[in-house]
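Team,

Forwarding the record for the chain on the shared tracking sheet. I've put the sequence and predicted structure together so nobody has to dig through attachments.
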Amino acid sequence: LKNAAQNGVDPKLLYPFVTCDNHSIDLKSLEQNIPLPASPYLQGVAALRTGNLSKAEQYFQAALNMGLVSNASQYALGVVDYLLGKDPTPHWQESNHIMHMLAEGRACDISNNKDVASKYYRYVLQNPESLNHYSRRKVYQELLEFFATTDDENSFSQSLLAYEAIADPTSLDYYWTLATSWRDHGQPSRALAYYKVVLERTPNDSLAWWNAGRAYEALEEFDTARDYYLKAYQLDPKNINFYIYVGNTYLAQKQYASAGEWFEKAIAIDADCIWALSNLVIVRQAQNRNEEAMDIIDHVLELAPDAYVRALASDVAINLQNWQLAKAFISEALALE
């Protein structure tokens, strides 16, 4: 970290310290081990992470003037220019900036800032010249999987064409990537064609059966989806997710008794499984067993006192005609969300 701060060897080394929620604590801890002249660079990174571009530019320029983190500061100033809609080329002439942009996109994606991540990833998609053949294939795969989760149709189509042009169509990874991408992009029918190839090659892969089932569930073909989930369950009976997905198909068909049985099986494996417990609450409500539902909710609130669980608790309280409790849960949910 000291070398990175002084010489700009690789800014990514600093990411674990500056992508957490509390920047001030992380930077304070970091600056205790890094010479003071590096501070403007670290302050610039923190400002960049929090979206204060004007401050970031000032800090990076100050670090550049000190001459201690020239490469990293030049790259960072290019990032600021790019985000401000200016030409970043002057700052990026001496560096392999594509991989840096990719790393920035990943950092934003991880922190659920998809709008900014999209901007970084679009730049990489349009400027792949510095990537070698192997890196380009892996990068296009990453871009495809990202844009599949967005409504950016143009970038999704570009990354899909780029990936298909360079990927090995005989590899299993090729079919997994396309299947997952089409499913995440809201095209389960197209995804199924690729999942079926995966299943032909690896018929004992429980995750392949499960993912194909998810595609059928997205098509609201719940009986077929359940058959695939049951096959996944038979191959890997220790995977609690398979129990819940089987239960979800019954829940979607309002077969509450069967749904409850599968959620209870999941809870028998993990008594603190919030997903299974929450779904069982919904089942008990549908069965008009609201006292039982409230008992389960009390346990879930201990595990995950978030807005969703409080909203679910308010539903149960309303069914019990406990208006005061319902109002309290709703107020708490609104305060959190």
